[in-house]
Write a structure and sequence with these properties.
six-stranded mixed β-sheet, 14 strands, alpha/beta
Length: 327
């Protein structure tokens, strides 16, 4: 299978801050690869390099067979990109926004108008096509921004945290659109902090931390790396968390994870069903009241905790984003 995106040894520094530290990545044509990482991991910086917005200090990158550093202008006609925040002009209508993008791609007046109408229909925005974007909801702006990235029918698409700030319904709607694009043959590089987003959309996941890829595989392959089952339980009172941790320590085959705000404790175990029975009995003996308890397999969150020592999900904006591409 031919690789649509190839990055080798990408380095990008801002003074003492290393945003990319020898990043290597390959994305096969017609597939979805998710860059999964915490705030400040280097996800957005990588996307900005791939889309010609940043020049790396060293390394090599090709997209759609084009050398990004040598032929950036040629590449721009072959890619589409949508950032963390919808890049639309709120004083123009939805139609005018897309028509303008078409003209910037030199599609011509007639084709730009035709393409704008096609995309507004495809993204369920036809009824709002002639309304100023300032009256659009967040989900509508997101769909319009994604439509703008598709005006020129690019073979390679970059989506940088496309569902940040959307409500659950709008997020699901956008996932449906993304799946339709990939089914039609588009190659997609997606950055996200949402575990369920990577789980649903990605053919492969590249875990990135401190500017480099630290693990790569399918969601199931990454979960297998962690191994075992998880006992997850919620206690009635936060004061019981420490008692529960002590009671369950002998069952744990890894680090016990506490979430005081949720009164929740997660314990990795090797013999799931028997460990669950024993754990409930031991907690009852210590008079720990359980609000909820269950046994589950590892999640991508567990993968992140194992690989990086912290959770992947953050506030949405990347820590340390100075506007200079550090993200």
């Amino acid at each position: 299978m031919v690789d649509a995106i190839i990055a080798e040894g990408l380095v990008k520094k801002y003074g003492r801050l290393v945003a990319l530290d020898g990043l290597d990545l390959r994305v096969p044509e017609g597939t979805v690869t998710a860059l999964l990482g915490p705030n400040g991991a280097g996800k957005t910086t990588a996307v900005r390099v791939f889309t010609t917005l940043l020049t790396p200090d060293s390394g090599r990158v090709t997209v759609a067979g084009i050398d990004v550093l040598r032929e950036p202008r040629r590449l721009r006609s072959r890619i589409g990109a949508s950032g963390q925040y919808a890049a639309v002009d709120e004083y123009l209508t939805g139609f005018e926004n897309l028509e303008m993008v078409g003209r910037l791609y030199h599609l011509g007046v007639a084709r730009s108008k035709q393409r704008a109408r096609e995309l507004l229909e495809r993204f369920d925005l036809a009824d709002a096509a002639d309304r100023p974007v300032k009256g659009y909801s967040g989900g509508m702006r997101r769909r319009l921004d994604l439509a703008g990235a598709l005006v020129a029918n690019p073979p390679v698409l970059f989506l940088d945290e496309p569902t940040t700030g959307l409500d659950p319904r709008a997020r699901l709607d956008l996932w449906d659109v993304i799946e339709e694009l990939v089914a039609a043959g588009t190659t997609l590089l997606l950055t996200t902090q949402y575990m369920e987003e990577a789980d649903r959309l990605a053919d492969a996941i590249a875990v990135i931390d401190h500017g480099k890829v630290i693990a790569r595989g399918t969601a199931d392959e990454l979960k297998t790396m962690v191994g075992g089952d998880r006992i997850e339980l919620t206690v009635d009172h936060i004061d019981s968390l420490e008692v529960a941790r002590e009671a369950l320590a002998e069952f744990a085959v890894g680090e016990i994870h506490l979430e005081p705000g949720l009164r929740r404790i997660t314990v990795p175990v090797s013999d799931g069903s028997q460990a669950l029975v024993d754990a409930i009995g031991r907690l009852a003996a210590r008079e720990v009241k359980i609000h909820d308890v269950g046994l589950r397999r590892p999640s991508l969150d567990d993968v992140f905790l194992t690989l990086t020592g912290h959770e992947a999900r953050g506030s949405g904006a990347e820590d340390g984003d100075t506007g200079e591409g550090v993200a």
